[in-house]
Amino acid sequence: MAAKTKKRAKARKAVLADIIPENKGGRPKSSLDILPEGWRDAVLGIYAGGGADVEVRVWIRQQGCTISNDLWYRWLDEEPEFSETIKEGRDLSEAWWHAAGRGLTVGAMRGNAAVWIMNMKNRFGFLDTVQHGGSIGVHPLDAIANEVSSRPVFDSTRRVGQTIEGSVLETE
């Protein structure tokens, strides 16, 4: 009896599949249609002033659009127009910060260089050191410091010198 019921259910499901599309559950995915008209130019304008992703997300929400962080990242993966706009915007933002750094360097802009440096490190991954393909665990400056620390340092009388470690050397 159970086999007969399963057969009927399977047959009914096959007939219904032709008539009614399968319900995948949940609400439909949000598309870029929910963004306000002119969103692309407004987003690029925010980035062109040195803005960050968070500022763009806040602006979108202020326009009355419900956009979660998950939706933001899904659009970056699945919506080419959105993804390209954000990538272009990030380039504009980084270019603005480079120009600001140049302005600080030549005195054309007032500001705090330390804040600019920290911003570049945190937002764009800038480093204080140059990465070399040399030995693992040995920084080039460490090697130079070790070499210099073993050289003798002579006093003004030129009779007795000592190394930085403190050992005494006799000289001519």
Order of helices and strands: HHHHHHHEEE
* Strand portion: 5-15%
Uncertain segments: 153-172
Q: Fraction of residues in helices?
A: 55-70%
Would you report the number of β strands? Answer: 3
Task: Tell me, briefly, the overall form.
Answer: elongated
Describe the strand arrangement of the main beta sheet, using strand numbers. 1-2-3
Largest β sheet strand count, sense and barrel closure: 3 strands, antiparallel
Structural class label: mainly alpha
Give a short synopsis of this structure.
This protein is mainly alpha-helical and 172 residues long. It has helices at 2-19, 39-48, 53-62, 69-78, 80-106, 113-124, 140-149, and strands at residues 152-154, 160-163, 168-170. Helix 2 (39-48) packs antiparallel against helix 3 (53-62), helix 2 runs parallel beside helix 5 and helix 4 packs across helix 5 (80-106).
Overview of the structural elements:
This protein is mainly alpha-helical and 172 residues long. It has a domain at 33-124. It is built from 7 helices and 3 strands; from the N terminus they run αααααααβββ. It has helices spanning 2-19, 39-48, 53-62, 69-78, 80-106, 113-124, 140-149, and strands at residues 152-154, 160-163, 168-170. Strand 1 and strand 2 (160-163) form a beta hairpin. Helix 4 packs across helix 5 (80-106) and helix 5 runs antiparallel to helix 6 (113-124). Mean pLDDT is 78; it is low at 153-172.
